[in-house]
Specification:
CATH architecture of the domain at 209-422 and 645-652: 3-Layer(aba) Sandwich
Distance between the termini: 57 Å
Bound molecules: ligand MGD, iron/sulfur cluster, molybdenum atom
Shape: globular
Strand content: 15-25%
CATH class of the domain at 209-422 and 645-652: Alpha Beta
Structural class: alpha/beta
Number of strands: 30
Largest sheet: 6 strands, mixed
Cofactor: [4Fe-4S] cluster; Mo-bis(molybdopterin guanine dinucleotide)
Helix content: 25-40%
Number of helices: 26
Organism: Vibrio sinensis
Main location: membrane
Protein name: Dimethyl sulfoxide reductase subunit A
Subcellular location: Cell membrane
Radius of gyration: 26 Å
């Protein structure tokens, strides 16, 4: 890749990475003496009788759900019998208990699940068949070391890939995400490195899109707690009641902020979500993938009625109108011209135009535009649902336009239109050295990098660090992830790619359960659960009350399971870097070391032993709200944004350059402005003649992605069903509970229908993460949406457009 282009590309920082390293909201300042423990220590009770040994041990739920919770295990004779969660303090807002949700509370059923992996295994059937034979740990290590040595020698380090996996995102030594922070990365870096990826399945269109607007890699929004200062709240594709639940999750701050301000609330989502749930004032259902048109229609109202914040646009922004267009931009390429139809496309983005695209009535568009422009401050946030689309980058940028046009950026009670900001706990990370390999692929591109690697280029496929990939992926480490199969798009295609054992030669899966991905392993290593080992876990999104958890080993390792640290230490030894890997420490040794390092950064932490006893340490942030880019608002010259101009770039010269140089397939749009663009399988796609219904996904309370997906009580409490509007159901003779088939050219799923007015007609929805369960004809009976999703990436981030799908639905059997 040429250097000029390289500097145009975003740095590939992920959200949590960025927040951690940023002085702005990253970690709390160490304020020795000013911060006392927020609660009393609660000693671990240990009752021993002659025959029964009973103890209470703090553990945790380490998964990727936007929260993180402590679990106190009641262990009787070496077995977890029951558990409770955070019970400290008075449970008042700001010092509230971090209580686990039903998933975490069912941890016992995950630890003792019949699906639990027991022994190291080697595949004997075809990949995916699930046929394995039991082998010893020695055999497993030998096999891995021999293959790794051979592949490194024959193909080089760029042929080794660490797949995305967020099952132990919460851990420190056992951390699975970002992959560069995992023990696997530490080992691979000692061996010369591995092929990197950039972006995440969560947010890559968001980060890549909004980086061009606000700069800095991750666009911040005001925290939910700041809603106490708002007069109006608008949420686009955001469902924190399901995605950030539990006592530590930000739904708590959303509820409290809203309660304090009593602000009117508008929810924009094709589905009536749990976040709406009777607490909203207006639900605006729209067709998936059309948020940009909705915003453009509202912008038309604001501009033509003269209710935009012109002084803000003049002072802080680039490209709103011709006055602030950069010199390189053609005439009439500004946003105002685009909206008023005097730009190159000549189309006026009237509310009538927007209504045809979105399905939202004209009067709602007009009324909402006026309300947003005239009710200040207005808190606008987006979730990640709108960006997990084929046009996700511009959709994310579009929503931000509402906050920008109305001058809500950088003020209390307002916001940026981005994701809500949070403070993070300041704690040492497990050192993994740096990766000598610079080549990087988009996170979603790994399956392509197996079979058409050397065809993948910088300009066509977003390869970074090289103009094109030099070698295919030959070896995959898949630790605590189900993105090898279940969570990656188009499972039938992935299956075909992985069938060819001469292409990807070795897949090592490190897991707790026999997941869809585990079935594709060549060597399957049974990992400990968090209950069987000790580690530190940091809060995820936790607004102004970040916290840390000391999870201690509650029970002995089950069966022959071993921890990932021990596995990596043993494999490193075979590869000749054992001492460098461990530095003479076992896992507990690292915990002590990292805690001592953290104490230096944050002296208000209790001692190691006290912390182990307390389990959870909650710490208030310096402020009880977070206002994104407030210093920029106060003084843009002194505190510029991370964009090339230092201002909010409504028109991005960097995007104009990419639009001119990148090789895009027909229909893909990269544009300097946040314009409306059609999706390859959207409401106006010709594919609708064959598959008339839009299928959108969502993150479901029954699971965290696929984790907890095999726990029977959870499946019963929140069953896997496809949402369909009565209008579409009646047309197809479908009643609530009937078994239906959902299908397109990529695959077929059979599950029950949930017939409900909670979804807009023309759209069906399926919670992501259900366990893929194909019959012999490859018809999935588990309800896994990725049988139906596409591997075609989004234009800019080359990310996963997993909410962009067209399908049809038919009745299979009456209930
Ligand atoms: N269609 C569609 N697909 C999606 C999404 C979508 O919205 N729609 N969302 C995407 C997003 S945002 C994400 S983040 C990804 C998430 O995808 P993944 O990161 O693959 O998340 P999970 O499915 O939870 O898989 C985590 C795995 O870790 C395992 N695990 C849990 N605890 C442990 C442990 O202690 N040790 C080990 N070794 N393993 C453990 C679990 O059993 C599980 O198999 O999915 C993406 N896929
Ligand atoms: N219970 C639970 N919590 C989770 C997770 C989980 O799997 N389970 N996953 C965690 C992870 S890793 C992540 S990344 C986050 C994900 O959080 P999000 O990505 O925000 O979650 P989604 O449910 O995919 O999307 C949010 C909403 O967007 C809506 N939506 C879809 N398409 C569109 C559209 O085009 N326009 C609009 N306006 N709305 C749309 C969906 O209907 C949904 O209600 O959640 C985290 N929290
Ligand atoms: S799934 Fe999330 S909210 Fe539920 S217990 Fe685990 S960390 Fe907490
Ligand atoms: Mo995610």
């Amino acid at each position: 890749m040429n250097n000029k282009l390289k500097t145009l590309l975003t740095g590939g920082l992920t959200r949590r990475d960025f927040m951690k390293s940023s002085g702005a909201v990253g970690g709390l300042a160490a304020t020795a003496g000013t911060m006392s423990l927020p609660f009393k220590s609660n000693p671990v009770a240990a009752a021993t009788t002659a025959t029964v040994e009973e103890k209470l041990v703090w553990s945790s739920c380490p998964v990727n759900c936007g929260s993180r919770c402590p679990l106190k295990m009641r262990v009787v004779d070496g077995e977890i019998k029951s558990l409770e969660t955070d019970t400290y303090g008075e449970d008042v807002y700001g010092d509230h208990q971090v209580r686990a949700c039903l998933r975490g509370r069912s941890m016992r059923r995950r630890v003792y699940n019949p699906d639990r992996l027991k022994y190291p295994m080697k595949r004997i059937g075809k990949r995916g068949e699930g046929k394995f034979k039991r082998i010893s740990w020695e055999e497993a290590y030998d096999e891995i070391a021999a293959n790794l040595t051979r592949i490194l020698k024959d193909y080089g380090n760029e042929a080794v890939y660490i797949n995305y996996g967020t099952g132990v995102l919460g851990g420190t030594v056992t951390k699975s995400w970002p992959p560069g922070a995992s023990p696997i990365a530490r080992m691979m870096n000692l061996l010369g490195g591995y092929l990197n990826h950039y972006g995440t399945y969560s947010s890559t269109q968001y980060t890549h899109g909004l980086d061009y607007t606000y700069g800095g890699g991750w666009a911040y929004g005001n925290s939910f707690s700041d809603m106490k200062n708002s007069k109006l709240i608008v949420q686009f594709g955001h469902n924190p009641a399901e995605t950030n639940m539990s006592g530590g999750g930000i739904i708590h701050y959303y509820m409290e902020g809203k309660e304090q301000s009593k602000a009117r609330t508008i929810i924009v989502d094709p589905r009536y979500t749990d976040t709406a749930g009777g607490r909203e004032d207006l639900w605006i259902p729209l067709r998936p993938g059309t948020d940009a048109a909705f915003v453009a229609g509202m912008a038309h109202v604001m501009i033509s009625e003269g209710i935009v914040d012109q002084p803000f646009l003049d002072k802080y922004c680039v490209g709103y109108d011709e006055k602030t267009l950069p010199a390189s931009a053609p005439a009439k390429s500004d946003y105002k011209s685009y909206i008023l139809g005097v730009g190159p496309d000549g189309i006026e983005k009237t509310p009538e135009w927007a209504s045809k695209i979105t399905g939202i009535p004209v009067d709602i568009i007009v009324q909402t535009a006026r309300e947003i422009a005239l009710t200040k401050p207005c808190a606008i946030h987006q979730g990640l649902g709108i960006q997990r689309h084929a046009n996700g980058e511009i959709a994310a940028r579009s929503v931000a336009m509402l906050s920008i046009l109305t001058g809500n950026v950088g003020v209390a009670g307002g916001g940026t239109g981005g994701m809500p900001g949070s403070y993070y706990f300041n704690f040492a990370s497990f050192p993994t050295f740096s990766n000598p390999v610079e080549t990087s692929i988009p996170v979603f591109g790994w399956s392509e990098a197996i079979y058409r690697a050397t065809d993948m280029t910088a300009l066509k496929d977003g390869i970074r660090g090289r103009d094109k990939l030099e070698v295919p992926i030959k070896f995959i480490w898949n630790y605590a992830g189900n993105c090898l199969v279940n969570q990656h798009s188009d499972i039938n295609r992935t299956h075909d790619i992985l069938q060819k054992e001469d292409d990807c030669e070795m897949i090592v899966v490190i897991e707790n359960h026999m997941t869809a991905s585990a079935k594709y392993a060549d060597i399957l290593l049974p990992d400990l659960t968090t209950s069987e080992q000790s580690d530190f876990l940091m809060s995820s999104e936790a607004d102004f009350m970040p916290f840390m958890i000391f999870a201690s080993q509650a029970i002995k390792p089950q069966f022959e399971c071993r921890g990932v640290y021990e596995m990596c230490a043993d494999i490193s030894k075979r590869m000749g870097v054992g001492q460098e890997f461990t530095e003479g420490r076992d896992q507990e040794g690292w915990l002590k070391h990292l805690y001592a390092e953290s104490l230096k950064m944050n002296p208000s932490l209790p001692s190691y032993d006290e912390m182990r006893e307390m389990g959870i340490f909650r710490q208030k942030a310096p402020k009880d709200t977070f206002v994104a880019y407030d210093t920029f608002r106060q003084n843009p010259e002194e505190s510029p944004l991370g964009t090339p101009s230092g201002k909010i770039e409504i028109y991005s010269e960097r995007l104009a350059e990419l639009a001119a140089t990148w090789e895009l397939p027909e229909g893909d749009v990269i544009h300097p402005l946040p314009i409306q663009a059609s999706e390859f399988e959207g409401w106006d796609s010709p594919v609708r003649e064959k598959f008339p219904l839009q299928l959108t996904g969502f993150h479901y309370k029954a699971r965290t992605h696929s984790t907890y997906g095999s726990v029977a009580v959870l499946k019963e409490a929140a069953p896997q069903e496809m949402w369909i509007n009565p209008v579409d159901a009646n047309e197809r003779g479908i009643n609530n509970g009937d078994l239906i088939r959902i299908f397109n050219d990529r695959g077929e799923v059979h599950i029950p229908a949930k017939v409900t007015p909670r979804i807009i007609p023309g759209v069906v929805a399926l919670g992501e993460g259900a366990w893929y369960a194909p019959d012999k004809n490859k018809v999935d009976k588990g309800g896994c949406i990725n049988v139906l999703t596409s591997q075609r990436p989004s234009p800019l981030a080359k990310g996963n457009p997993q909410h962009t799908n067209l399908v049809d639905v038919q009745l299979v059997k009456k209930a």
